[in-house]
Amino acid sequence: MQTSPSRHTRSLLKVALAAMFSVVAGVASANDLIVRYDQSQLLRLPRAISQVIIGNPSIADASVQGTNLIVVTGKTFGVTNIIALDKQGNVIQDQRVIVQRDDVRMVNLHKGSQRQSFTCAPNCTPTVTIGDDKEFFETISAHSQKKTQFSSSESDSGGGGGQ
Fold first, then answer.
1. Which of 27, 59, 81, 137 has the fewest other C-beta atoms within 10 Å?
2. 73: domain CATH number?
3. What is the model's pLDDT at position 23?
4. Same domain assignment for residues 60 and 115
5. In total, how many domains does the chain have?
6. More confidently predicted of 28 and 125
7. Do 53 and 85 reside in the same domain of the chain?
8. What is the pLDDT of residue 9?
9. Does 2 map to a domain?
């Protein structure tokens, strides 16, 4: 014969679920600006910006576009804040920023404790992601830097085809 859970067991379950929900809910609030790693988000403010202060510049970067628009770029995973001031030094907004990984098109290849990351959209290509295997990370970083240098030398020389 099966018995239903006791009142005490149900109470403990409710407390455990409430605690779990509060931990999950504490990760990000509705007011947080979620920025994906290596991507940007726009932050539009109600009035003109004179100065922007970034709590931890290694996590996010910010640049002012126009008078009241900030472009926030995620540089590495973590939480920081951005404070926008007007000409009088008054706070327009103190915005918490959470930089997260974009898992929608990411595939991780695990070889034991080593990880390699790929962006698949639809074909998979290696991507530089913090936390990847050191050798893989350095190789992909070097390739990426060469590509960037080649692209900038092409644009500097007018795109003549590298002759």
1. 27
2. 2.60.40.1080
3. 41
4. no
5. 2
6. 125
7. yes
8. 62
9. no
Task: Please give the Cα distance from 54 to 48 (Å, whole number).
Answer: 17
Can you tell me the mean pLDDT for 130-134? 90
User: What is the widest separation between alpha-carbon atoms in the chain?
Assistant: 85
Domain contains 3: no
Segment 62-82 shows an average pLDDT of: 94
More confident: 161 or 84: 84
What is the rounded end-to-end Cα distance, in angstroms, of the chain?
A: 85
The DSSP-derived string for the chain is ---PPPHHHHHHHHHHHHHHHHHHHTT--TTSEEEEBT-EEEEE-SS--SEEEES-TTTEEEEEETTTEEEEEE-SSEEEEEEEE-TTS-EEEEEEEEEE---TTEEEEEETTEEEEEEESSSEEE---TTS-HHHHHHHHHHHHHHHHHHHHHHHTTS----
Same domain? For 128 and 91 the reply is no
For residue 103, the model assigns a pLDDT of 79
pTM over 0.70, yes/no = no
In which region does residue 7 sit, left (phi positive, over 0), alpha (psi from -120 to 50) or beta (all else)? Answer: alpha
Average model confidence (pLDDT) across the chain: 82
Does residue 129 share a domain with residue 90? no
